[in-house]
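Handout, section B. The chain below has 143 residues.
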Amino acid sequence: MNKMHPPANTELTKTTRVRAHRVSAADLATAKEVFEAATFLVSPDHYTQRQAFGELMPHLFILQGNGWSWQQLTKLVNDSGFKLASSTVRRYFEEFKNLNLQTYQKTMNERLLLMKEVASQTQEMDLAAIPGRVAEILNAFYR
């Protein structure tokens, strides 16, 4: 008996013809648009801690650049719903930093410019007016 092919009397030699389901060109074009939009708009309901950490990484990069210790970063992360050891925070941080350093540096530079702008525009303002002015600056910046 040939080990590559089953004996002729098995069920594998009997085939049933099934009519293939076809998709129209219009339906395919619509599906492509839906899938493309979904890649930008749809987020999962739950993230792994690693995925969520990656989403927060630009902020963590800025905090670490401003002198926050690993213990402080770990406390902030864990106070936000994570359960990570300080060594894991540091490992995740280094892994994401190595993958996206230019993006994080760009974000940090943008935030520094934003902070400088806020400081210059609110320097001599009445304290009660500062929150409103800061909100205007942020809205203009993120448009």
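Note. The radius of gyration is 27 Å. Compare this with the example in section A.
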